[in-house]
Specification:
Blueprint lengths: L3 E9 L6 H9 L17 H4 L4 H14 L7 E4 L5 H12 L6 H5 L5 H10 L5 E4 L5 H14 L5 E7 L17 E9 L6 E7 L16 H11 L3 E6 L2 E7 L2
Parallel strand pairs: 2-3, 2-4
Antiparallel strand pairs: 1-5, 4-5, 6-8, 7-8
Length: 246
């Protein structure tokens, strides 16, 4: 798979806005507030009013990472997407209440990407990916495919929030809403990052996650911004290997 480098990155969570604060937190994680919403001032107000909290967080990270870079394909990746909105719609259906067409249209996984494209007037390719515990790897695999086809840059946006009732038993990894975005370009340099996948266990034992450790999505961000040489994510009988060959 083609190697890539991170040209620019950004992230947003309640209490964490700037890259420097994120780097400090990723090195020594601690509990964060569960509430908070970015201003999303870069999006026109008429469109911004339609976006729920999770969408605002994802879009804020996307705008911050994109800044003044040329238009590029964007891959939005979320394990569950705006599940809270879907639960609300299902509850209304169960009560035989009328549904909001706007709310329904924004409940699908590709809605956030569509809004971002429309707001920016950007006709580049957009994709929405959900691949369970391997969502981040699936998004970066898609990005690497685009880079290998000659696309000069690709942006990946990863976002999630705690799963709402009654679905919280499906996933307890995400303790607070957050999003991060990376603007990628192909690289053949010594510091290029490579991602590959193999069946079986990782080369070295991987300790199970506990309350003090990070879920896989944030562990991937920590690897990308820390300069670490290697990180492995074992799941579903596969081992994803992230490596930086310095």
């Amino acid at each position: 798979m083609v190697g890539f480098s991170v040209q620019r990155w950004a992230a947003w969570a309640p209490g964490l806005v700037h890259p420097a604060s994120w780097e400090t937190w990723l090195a020594t994680p601690h509990p964060l507030p569960a509430e908070g919403t970015p201003a999303l001032a870069a999006m026109p107000a008429m469109m911004r009013r339609r976006v729920d909290r999770l969408g605002r967080i994802a879009l804020q990270a996307a705008y911050d990472a994109h800044v003044d870079a040329p238009d590029a394909p964007v891959i939005f990746a979320s394990r569950y997407g705006d599940l809270g909105r879907s639960v609300e719609l299902l509850t209304q259906l169960a009560r035989s209440e009328p549904l909001s067409p706007t709310s329904f249209s924004l409940s699908v996984h590709n809605a956030i990407g569509a809004l971002y494209s429309i707001a920016r007037g950007d006709t580049s390719a957009y994709a929405a990916i959900a691949a369970g515990e391997e969502t981040v790897e699936a998004a970066f695999t898609e990005a690497c495919g685009l880079l290998s086809d000659g696309v000069p840059r690709v942006m990946v946006v990863v976002y999630d929030e705690p799963v709402p009732t009654p679905w919280e038993h499906f996933s307890r990894d995400v303790a607070f809403p957050h999003a991060w975005a990376c603007l990628l370009s192909a690289s053949t340099g010594a510091d290029a990052i490579h991602l590959d996948c193999a069946a079986g266990a990782p080369d070295a034992p991987v300790a199970p996650l506990d309350a003090a450790e990070l879920p896989a999505g944030l562990s991937a961000l920590r690897f990308l911004v820390s300069g670490a040489s290697r990180w492995e994510h074992a799941t579903g009988g596969r081992c994803w290997r992230w490596a930086r060959h310095a």
